[in-house]
Design a protein that fits this description.
Radius of gyration of chain B: 37 Å
Main location (chain A): mitochondrion
Number of strands of chain A: 10
Largest sheet of chain B: none
Strand content of chain B: under 5%
Helix content of chain A: 25-40%
Number of helices of chain B: 6
CATH architecture of the largest domain in chain A: Alpha-Beta Complex
Keywords (chain A): Coiled coil, Mitochondrion
Oligomer: heterodimer
Family (chain A): Belongs to the phosphatidylethanolamine-binding protein family. Mitochondrion-specific ribosomal protein mL38 subfamily.
Order of helices and strands of chain A: HHHHHHHHHEEEEEEEEEHHEH
Radius of gyration of chain A: 31 Å
Structural class of chain B: mainly alpha
Shape of chain A: extended
Strand order of the largest sheet of chain A: 3-10-9-5-6-8
Organism (chain A): Cladosporium halotolerans
Strand content of chain A: 15-25%
Number of strands of chain B: 0
InterPro entries (chain A): PEBP (IPR008914), PEBP-like_sf (IPR036610), PEBP_euk (IPR035810)
Chain lengths: ~425, ~190
């Protein structure tokens, strides 16, 4: 193969890769997905994309590399060729080279180091798996059962950690994740997504729910481990945003993204802790939505709160409203995980189902007004794992929304009680009037 | 009597100086927090030509960061950035392993020293432990014979005697002015 003068040093690198390429499946940078993920037990897809058709690049000032062509480009388009001839030649050649085989010496050395490390990690994973199997096969005395389980648990944790370590240095994994094409069934992508969420979005959420005192008001504490995002129709709502009452009239979509393996059942509750109670001179709770047995897995995250079945919904969506003269109403959305099954190994889902019909029959939690989420959590043994928040104020659509929802009191206006100042605090002269 | 001039005082005293704020401070004062506390960007259609108005503080920060000694931020194409990242990760990994290896070497050295000291502590000046003495029918070791070698070792006498003379250079904070003397021989 004849190489041009400017590209001769490069040619040496290219030639060796070209021979290899004949045998290897070509995986270009853009089409490959999760190439090196053997840890997850699923055979990596080996489909190859046909290389894109070559276009005539002779007139592109960024890609010409022959002196005669360069002269032609300068004469015809008046543009000078960009950068060095070697670089232009390389750019022209590298359209078809997969990212991993790009002929940069330092890059290739770095890849070698990383792959060596990956091999080590895979070996460690294999060893750890064998160890776990051996331990599982052991028969232990009943008093040592707890210790064995504890050891198995910690071994599983270290295995998960190793799985992440094996893939975290892969540039293709990073690229795939940044393109949002990561497969959430694989531990590495779940890990990356979790880190990303915790770095910003979760902090914002925590700030909102603590600043607006949702956390001690509705539930004593929450440590979110699943991320949530709320959508009314096509409108994405930030945590704590004030939503127009006409927008929030229909039940929203809730995206619940867990970052750990497996299917599980969640209970979703929407509670308004700001319902005024004039008699008490205080505030009550009102439940706007309550549904149990919502099946969520890392890949199936979308919940349409309006479309859940009869077996799941305890209290259907009631449009949130405020009344005239009231400050904003907080609508706290809590995601609670249902208790774990004892024998989680044999079934696909790891949580127990809640008997919705029984709850409805008992009637204690079917009244919206005065719904206390703490008590519901205690009786059903639920654990809060996620939270979200939006607000509503009295606006021009609220009266209509309340009328359509069949709620009376759309025309009530709340006013502050006027407190007469004490006589000596009155303005001089006013007490003689 | 004529009052003394305060011109000199005015020049140097901070109390007399007129309140001329710096350009940075003026910029900051001119633009207080105008946007409301929301994360959504300001309406772009308001300012037809220039897009949303830049915060004066941001302008000032950018201006002062633009110093000839400030390193340029790395601006790479995507592939280039990924390659850079790969190399960076490999280098970090290499250094991590190196550090781990050094640490484990040190630990091993410390352990073997400790083991040697323990062995010394358990033998008498004949090199026999208490059990070996019993086996040989020697009876109990007398007085301070047990662990004598250990005590001598702990005195650490003369351990700096055989240190080469090169190590005796006075330790300084900076390297010598004439660099390394390659011609030096003993």
């Amino acid at each position: 193969m004849a190489f041009e003068k400017g590209a001769r040093p490069l040619a040496r690198c290219l030639q060796c890769t070209k021979h290899e390429r004949a045998a290897l499946p070509i995986r270009t940078f853009t089409t490959s997905r999760a190439a090196l993920l053997e840890t997850t037990n699923d055979p990596a897809s080996t489909e190859t994309a046909p290389p894109p058709a070559r276009q005539p690049m002779s007139m592109n000032p960024e890609l010409v590399s022959r002196p005669s062509q360069e002269r032609r480009v300068v004469a015809e388009t008046g543009k000078q060729p960009v950068a060095s001839r070697r670089r232009r030649y390389m750019l022209k050649q590298t359209q078809n080279i997969p990212f991993e085989q790009l002929p940069f010496q330092c890059f290739q050395e770095a890849r070698k180091v990383l792959q060596e490390d990956r091999k080590e990690k895979l070996e460690q994973i294999r060893v750890q798996r064998e160890r776990m199997e051996r331990l599982q096969a052991q028969n232990v005395a009943p008093q040592d059962e707890g210790r064995k389980n504890h050891r198995l648990k910690s071994m599983r944790e270290s295995l998960d950690h190793l799985k992440i370590l094996a893939d975290i240095n892969d540039p293709m994994v990073k690229k795939t994740f940044e393109d949002k094409q990561g497969d959430m069934n694989k531990p590495i992508y779940r890990h990356l997504a979790d880190k990303k969420w915790r770095s910003y979005k979760r902090q914002v959420l925590m700030q909102r729910i603590t600043q607006m005192n949702v956390v001690p008001d509705v539930l004593p504490a929450v440590d979110p481990v699943v991320s949530t995002s709320l959508m009314f129709g096509r409108r994405n709502v930030q945590h704590g945003e004030i939503v127009d009452s006409r927008v929030s009239e229909i039940a929203p979509f809730l995206e619940i993204q867990p970052y750990d393996q497996g299917e599980r059942l969640y209970t979703v509750a929407v509670v308004d802790p700001d319902v005024p109670n004039v008699k008490k001179d205080g505030f009550d709770y009102r439940c706007h939505y309550l549904a149990s047995n919502v099946r969520i897995s890392p890949t199936e995250t979308m919940v349409r709160l309006g479309d859940l079945s009869e077996k799941q919904v305890i209290l259907p969506w009631l449009a949130p409203y405020s009344q005239k003269g009231l400050p904003y109403q907080r609508l706290a959305i809590f995601i609670m995980e249902q208790p774990k099954l004892e024998s989680a190994a044999d079934s696909a889902c790891r949580s127990q189902e809640i008997d919705v019909a029984k709850i409805k029959e008992a009637g204690r939690y079917t009244k919206r007004h005065g719904f206390i989420l703490r008590s519901f959590n205690t009786t059903q043994d639920l654990k809060p794992v996620g939270a979200d928040l939006f607000r509503t104020v009295y606006d021009e659509g609220t009266a209509g929304v309340m009328e359509r929802a069949g709620v009376i009191g759309g025309d009530i206006e709340f006013k502050r009680k006027k407190i007469e100042p004490l006589p000596y605090k009155k303005l001089p002269g006013s007490r003689y009037r | 009597m004529k009052a003394p001039s305060t011109a000199l005082l005015r020049t140097f005293s901070p109390l007399w100086r007129s309140e001329a704020t710096s350009a940075t401070a003026r910029g900051c004062i001119a633009q207080q927090q105008q946007a409301d506390f929301s994360s959504t960007p300001a309406n772009q259609a308001r300012n037809k030509r220039a897009g949303p108005k830049k915060d004066a503080r941001i302008t000032q920060i950018r201006y002062h960061l633009q110093h000839p000694l400030t390193p340029r931020p790395l601006r790479f194409s995507r592939n280039r950035a990924l390659r850079h990242w790969t190399i960076h990760r490999a280098w970090q990994l290499y250094q991590f392993k190196l550090r781990n290896k050094q640490q484990s070497d040190l630990e091993k050295q410390y352990q073997s020293m400790a083991n040697a000291c323990e062995a010394l502590r358990l033998i008498d000046n004949q090199g026999l432990t208490a059990e070996e003495r019993l086996k040989l029918g020697e009876g109990e070791a007398e007085g301070n014979q047990m662990g004598k070698l250990f005590r001598i070792a702990m005195q650490k006498k003369g351990i700096w005697d055989g240190v080469p003379i090169e190590y005796a250079r006075i330790q300084t904070d900076t390297p010598p002015r004439d660099g390394w003397n390659h011609a030096w021989t003993r």
